TrEMBL record, chain A:
<dbReference type="InterPro" id="IPR029063">
    <property type="entry name" value="SAM-dependent_MTases_sf"/>
</dbReference>
<dbReference type="GO" id="GO:0106335">
    <property type="term" value="F:tRNA (5-carboxymethyluridine(34)-5-O)-methyltransferase activity"/>
</dbReference>
<dbReference type="InterPro" id="IPR013216">
    <property type="entry name" value="Methyltransf_11"/>
</dbReference>
<protein>
    <submittedName>
        <fullName>tRNA methyltransferase, has a role in tRNA modification</fullName>
        <ecNumber>2.1.1.229</ecNumber>
    </submittedName>
</protein>
<keyword id="KW-0808">Transferase</keyword>
<dbReference type="Pfam" id="PF08241">
    <property type="entry name" value="Methyltransf_11"/>
</dbReference>
<feature type="region of interest" description="Disordered">
    <location>
        <begin position="184"/>
        <end position="214"/>
    </location>
</feature>
<keyword id="KW-0489">Methyltransferase</keyword>
<dbReference type="GO" id="GO:0002098">
    <property type="term" value="P:tRNA wobble uridine modification"/>
</dbReference>
TrEMBL record, chain B:
<protein>
    <recommendedName>
        <fullName>Trm112p-domain-containing protein</fullName>
    </recommendedName>
</protein>
<dbReference type="InterPro" id="IPR039127">
    <property type="entry name" value="Trm112"/>
</dbReference>
<comment type="similarity">
    <text>Belongs to the TRM112 family.</text>
</comment>
<dbReference type="GO" id="GO:0070476">
    <property type="term" value="P:rRNA (guanine-N7)-methylation"/>
</dbReference>
<dbReference type="Pfam" id="PF03966">
    <property type="entry name" value="Trm112p"/>
</dbReference>
<dbReference type="GO" id="GO:0046982">
    <property type="term" value="F:protein heterodimerization activity"/>
</dbReference>
<feature type="region of interest" description="Disordered">
    <location>
        <begin position="65"/>
        <end position="100"/>
    </location>
</feature>
<dbReference type="InterPro" id="IPR005651">
    <property type="entry name" value="Trm112-like"/>
</dbReference>
<dbReference type="GO" id="GO:0030488">
    <property type="term" value="P:tRNA methylation"/>
</dbReference>
Length: 255, 141
């Protein structure tokens, strides 16, 4: 696996956004089951709460709670078009660094598997700041009454996962996404038989569907790193933990 | 993009957000489309306190839609009066005409194509196939 050299916005455009735009429909087909901690966070919201899903992907979390209103955003137009189907919510194309919401207006936000795609420490802090800025501040009389956000990032410590990374490994990595070519079994067999005949000179060989590999940039978070970034961004970590190869945190604004 | 969305959107440019004129965004050259969905009375009642009513009135009038009443409806206004529950019986609340109208304008009336303009900086965001795009050109980031 090649190590990445993170460089900021232009780098992320090439190694994150462009990739998702191309793999959108395939990616969506594999992302349908909500993770339990996220499901719980969304289901415990009071009815009528208003929030944002920052980096919504195919919008799988929009299906969890139809009694709240979520404005879901993603950089990828193709993913937003898929997310659009979920009522009563709304989906828009936007960048986490320039979200089009009034400041301090929302009851909640989620940002799942998003800020691990940001390639410099400064920009990671800026991204968490952008999420915190969406949230209602707590009222003076009731600490803890402000808006809350749930953030999930990929963990460096995941030695039992398929990837096998662990403490001490390189944190900036390129992760392949393999888009398998559609294979119709019968058609493939026939093609296999035909291909025993060598193509005649000057003739194109029969077209074979090819698997395509895309590389996405990730920053893998080591233990405690997410909380450090939240602190730097001026947020309070209310609750945090480790869940299936990910670090997560529930954050709120400091008064 | 359903009109309710505009209640929670402003200009993506940071310096605009502190200016009151950046909210709401103004639809321009909008092609509207009605996308029918089931009415959800509890949802309407719950979202009611979040609505910026004067701003929504501005938007509907800019779009040439029927005028919204000057004052926001109350939760009670959204429920059809009448249905009396017999003893020990729960009667499901029915949406009033006011609720149906609100559902129509906020959740079923959508901008299919057009632009959303910031009243502060004048920047226009495109809406295409019902999806508004807030990505900024490089010189505005
Ligand atoms: Zn503006």
């Amino acid at each position: 696996m090649a190590d990445a050299e993170p460089q900021g916005a232009a780098y992320e455009e090439e190694h994150v956004h462009t990739v998702y735009e191309q793999i959108a429909s395939h990616f969506s087909a594999t992302r349908y089951k909500p993770w339990p901690i996220i499901e719980k966070f969304l289901k415990e919201l009071p009815d009528g709460a208003v929030g944002a899903d920052v980096g919504c992907g195919n919008g799988k979390y929009l299906a969890v709670n139809p009694r709240v209103f979520m404005v879901a955003s993603d950089r990828s137009t193709n993913l937003v078009k898929i997310a659009k189907q979920h009522q009563p919510h709304a989906s828009i194309v936007a960048d986490i660094m320039n979200l089009p919401h009034p400041r301090h207006s929302l009851d909640f936000a989620i940002s799942i598997a998003v800020i691990h795609h940001i390639s410099t420490p400064e920009r990671r802090i800026e991204a968490v700041k952008a999420i915190l800025e969406l949230l209602r501040p707590p009222s003076a009389s009731e600490p803890g009454s402000g808006g809350r956000a749930l953030i999930y990032v990929w963990a460096l410590e995941q030695k039992d996962s398929r990837r096998g990374w662990d403490e001490g490994n390189e944190q900036d990595v390129m992760v392949p996404w393999v888009m398998r070519a559609k294979k119709e079994k019968e058609a493939k067999k026939k093609k296999g038989q035909e291909s025993q005949e060598a193509p005649k000179e000057g003739e194109q060989p029969p077209e074979q569907p090819q698997d395509k590999t895309f590389l996405r940039y990730y920053h893998l978070y080591r233990k405690g790193e997410l909380e450090e970034i939240i602190e730097e961004a001026g947020g309070d970590t209310v609750e945090a933990g480790y869940d299936k190869d990910n670090w997560w945190a529930i954050v709120q604004r400091k008064s | 993009m359903k009109l309710l969305t505009l209640n929670f959107l402003t200009c993506a440019i940071k310096t605009c957000k502190t200016s009151p004129s950046s909210f709401p965004l103004h639809p321009r050259d909008a092609e509207l489309e009605i996308l029918e969905t089931d009415i959800n009375l509890p949802f309407l009642k719950n979202i009611l306190p979040r609505l910026m009513w004067d701003e929504l009135r501005t938007i509907t009038s800019e779009l040439g839609l029927p005028e919204l009443p000057p004052a926001a409806p109350t939760r009670e206004d959204l429920v059809e009066p009448g249905a009396q529950a017999a003893e020990g019986e729960e009667v499901e609340e029915q949406p009033s005409q006011t609720a149906k109208d609100l559902h129509r304008v906020l959740l079923e009336t959508t901008v299919k194509e057009g632009k959303l303009a910031c009243g502060n900086c004048g920047h226009e965001y495109k809406v295409m196939e019902g999806v508004p795009n807030f990505l900024l050109p490089g010189h505005l980031v």
